[in-house]
Amino acid sequence: MEYDIYDFDKTVYPHDSETVFLFYSMLTHPLLWFLIPYQIVCITLYALGAGDKYKGKCFVFLRFANGEKLVEKFWKKQTKRIYPIFEKETRGFPTLVCSASPEYLVKPLCEKYGVEKVIATKADIKDGVIIGKNCIRKEKVRRIKEELPDINIRKVISDDLKNDIHIFRLGKECYKAEKGILTKMNIEEIEAING
């Protein structure tokens, strides 16, 4: 089957969805603020390259909240920010969303938009712990080939020419997304930008 691949954060949604979700959750649940020092340590360790497990630990608050309801409420507030390029009528082709954000966060919105397949970072919605590896860079390609071994990729659409170079190499056409506007590029241009 032939698909178009969309990145999610800053491609379909204008921000990093897991960061916005983290702040939304903390702001709507002040009783969880006692976790903020722990989250700052985890975010710092993750940013310094200490490992994917620290990314998941930022979402430890899910142990004390109903994650599914939080995600549902979050998207009720945030859906209006989804770019029109992601509307099913605009896409017009089977779609695979491939994202480093947690699957429990991205998948409900993608299902609402009629996306055929979602590949994202697997994490437990009950405690935020990452299961396996963060779905980023070469891991995106590995997961795509593992889950859809016979896939043909028509278009790849992403805002991130550097981190998504590996999935851009899979597509027949490449599009840089910027604030909901797509610009066609060829793989040679993207490779040159990456040096």
Give the CA-CA distance, first to last residue. Answer: 33 Å
How many individual helices? 9
Under CATH, the topology is which? Rossmann fold
**Poorly predicted regions:** none
Taking all residues together, what is the mean pLDDT? 94
What's the β-strand tally?
6
Q: Helical amount among residues, as a percent range?
A: 25-40%
Write structural notes for this entry.
α4 (about 65-80) crosses α6 (about 105-110). It contains 9 helices and 6 strands; from the N terminus they run βαααααβαβαβαββα. It has one domain (about 1-195): HAD superfamily/HAD-like (Rossmann fold, 3-Layer(aba) Sandwich), CATH 3.40.50.1000. The protein has about 200 residues and is α/β, with parallel strands linked by helices. The relative contact order is 0.18. The protein is about 40% helix and about 20% strand. A 6-stranded mixed beta sheet has the order 3-2-1-4-5-6. β5 and β6 form a beta hairpin.
List the topology elements.
Blueprint: E1 2-6, H1 17-28, H2 36-47, H3 52-57, H4 67-78, H5 88-91, E2 95-102, H6 103-112, E3 117-121, H7 138-147, E4 152-158, H8 165-168, E5 173-178, E6 181-185, H9 187-193
Parallel strand pairs: 1-2, 1-4, 2-3, 4-5
Antiparallel strand pairs: 5-6
Helix pairs in contact: 4-6
Which terms summarize this structure?
single chain; 195 residues; alpha/beta; Rossmann fold; 6 strands; 39% helix; globular
Please provide a brief summary of the model.
By secondary structure, the protein is an alpha/beta fold.
